[in-house]
Amino acid sequence: MYDQLLTKILEEEYPVHSRLPTEEMLAESFGVSRPVVRGALSRLRDDGIVQSRRGSGSYVLRRPDRELISFVPLESVSDVQRCYEFRIDVEGAAAAWAARRRDDEDLAAMDAAYLLMEQTYQQNALGVDADQSLHLAIARGAKNPFFSSVLESLSEQIAYGVRLSRSLTLLDAPVRQELVLAEHRAVLEAIRLKQPDVAQATMRHHITAAKDRMFVDAQED
Length: 221
Fold this sequence. Notes:
By secondary structure, the chain is mostly helical. It has helices spanning 2-10, 23-30, 34-46, 77-101, 104-122, 128-141, 145-153, 155-171, 174-192, 196-212; strands at 50-53, 57-60, 62-64, 215-217. A hairpin with a 3-residue loop joins strand 1 (50-53) and strand 2.
């Protein structure tokens, strides 16, 4: 049911801003019970794709990028988003600690990883490994092995999301690629200047933006 609703949103049978049919109508249309419909709508709300308005029904807030289904099955969208949500909190904190504790060796590792990532971007390559190396270098700069251990243990899941986000970026205008690089530079600059709050905010912004770049939202329509 979730996949079917998401497909209809993707294909704009239910466009952004539009109100979805009632639970009763959806249940009849898809041949399922109303609890099944409620479960699908709840998941879509959790994903930030629909919004419920009291007394008015459910409305489409945003839809997946059309190119998304070229890279991943729609049913994996929720899992990718959950991984990004986890990263927002964990890596935001890691960046803050790195700003407090990093040394010159840590900065050198971060700079080297960034330069490698920049080179892959210039070559229009995916650069997933380079991206992960940079984020791992930041986590190591926090001088708390729990941060780096978590990222290493989730490397496969993180790479899946990065590969998706990067693939969509390559299909978009060049300005989007520069935007991604600028987000990374902002994090590194805050760490370099020993600004924990700024480092945390810029890292959280970067990962949130990466998550949101999988979607076309109301502001873009």
